[in-house]
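Protocol step 4 of 6: structure prediction from sequence.
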Amino acid sequence: MDDALKQTLTLGRSYFEKRQYAEAEKHLTQVVEQNQSFADVYNMLGIIFHDQGQFARAQRAFEAALRLNPAYTDAALNLAVIYNDMGKYREAREVYQAAIGRQRASPTKMDPYVQGKIANMYADIATVFASAGLLDEAVAEYRRALALGPNFVDIRLKLADCLRDLGDLPGAIAEFEAILQVNPNYLPGRVHFGIALYSAGRKADAVKMWEDVLARSPGNKSAEMYLGLVRDIGQDAVHDAQVG
């Protein structure tokens, strides 16, 4: 998740918790337009639509949350309420009974929203360690965060950068490859992947990665900067050889 989208999501959740539903809906809708992987966002939108009396939209939102996370008890119970309000009593009973059954089968299972918040807390601690130069400690905390949120590509990016700075280039490259498996369109991941490849002596692969970024996002400043830097270094090397 890029920083702009993360900020939009944070604002949406904040407005929702304050029950400022109009502002929350605006921000959460922006999130799902760009990233459809947050079950709790759909759940929040469902609650907002229910509050507005838009039962059909609420139903679709809760169903989307459950498609992403079938064990999401809150979304299941909210969907049961919507079904009941719409007169779909059989569906309401089935969803409710299934949700209660899952909850009894795994009473200690963590709510996905809480799990995500804890993952981000671990990541924040890791960032403090990294800023203090304590990279081994930062790596440990980023791994704890990813154990709770394995698809949080922004956290995995920070872990990969730490591993690169520690000199563990194979480890960093493995993390960048994992990022692209989760989200091939995550451009910061591709840009930083190029840096790791270049650091590993794989200049051609790095150039290809940055060129791919520009193909996906023409005018990307970071990709242009690194490509220009690599080309300038290459030209300087040729010049030095000719002078020698």
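Step 5 (inspection) to follow. The mean pLDDT is 86.
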